[in-house]
Amino acid sequence: MASDERTIKDIEDIIVRASAGREPTWQTADDVARISFESLVTDDEIARTLPSLGMLRLSGPGVSLHSAPLSDVTRILQGLQRVATAVAAAGVGDMELGRQASSSVTTRTRLLIAGSPAPGSLVFNLSPETAAVEEVRDPAGAVSMFREKSDDDQEIDKAMSRAIDVIGAGIELPAVTDGSEFLSDLAELGPRVASSIRDFARGLHRYGFDLDLEWRQPRRPTHRVHLATYSADRIASVIESSHLDVDPVTIEGRILTVSTVQNQEWLIEQTDGTHVSIKHSDLPYDQTVGIATDTRVRIEAQMKTSVSNAGVTKVTYEATSVQRLDDAQEPEVVPDNQ
After folding, report:
1. How far apart are the first and last CA of the chain?
2. Residue 121 gets which letter from DSSP?
3. Organism's domain of life (predicted)?
4. What are phi and psi of 174, to 5 degrees?
5. DSSP assignment, residue 3?
6. Within 13 Å and on the Cβ side, how many CA atoms surround 188?
7. Would you say 267 and 307 are in contact if contact means Cβ atoms under 8 Å apart?
8. In this predicted model, what pLDDT tens digit does every residue of 167-203 receive, in sequence order?
9. pLDDT in the model for residue 149
10. Is the whole model's pTM more than 0.85, yes or no?
11. Coil, helix or strand for 321?
């Protein structure tokens, strides 16, 4: 019988080449055990029934033993929910700042939590409020024999997995961030996602939390990320300096008040009757000189949302250009009597 003279190194090389280009399905022994068990119990299923599960762990200087201020933890959890909803909304083309995501997206991305303390940290178990069987199966019970793998994805699965991957790219930012994968992802997902991740990261840094976040979808690789406090601060700063967290808007209306030099804001009554304050400190003098109350204007501005320390969402506008509109009416043309 012929002998195989290949060494262990040769065999390892063959295995590596055979698996090249394949998506890794596990990172830890727990991943292997989970995916193996899920494959066993769902082997004869046509459509998915098992739920996805997640884990959020807070540690670092903001945690004492296994407790932390309720207000701080609440804002972090709310921030994660905003990120998940924003990413899901971006997936269906809804990226606009200053408006709520659709009720369908909001409902399908709502997370439930259950807390469990651990020494030096707080651990929250996450799960979708919407059961998988309600979302991925046909309400009438019809089942296709040609289901794709993606047919078993819930909205929250896609949102949490993408959010974790984007945050992970933010941790690996190069010294020169222009053109980085992180900024490219944010540009694709839009300003609502950028602003929600900015606020989430800023909250982690402000309250002194290190974050461990996982999302485990049945029979899929676990998505996980560890975000240290200092990395969260850099992510928030990079997003802000990139201006990917702003939305260009056009505002038309009548100026009600002209700011002082200190305020440098206009209060505008829009054509629909609502009032909005717009900062104009960056406009050149030749654009603002002579603008007084009752002047009708068209303003190009950048809209930005932020979450205050009290958890209140605030909308601000920064003018980039202004144009005075002519109120004069066209003279009525009276036809000559013949």
Report:
1. 117
2. E
3. Bacteria
4. -75, 170
5. -
6. 13
7. no
8. 999 999 999 999 999 999 999 999 999 999 999 999 9
9. 67
10. no
11. strand
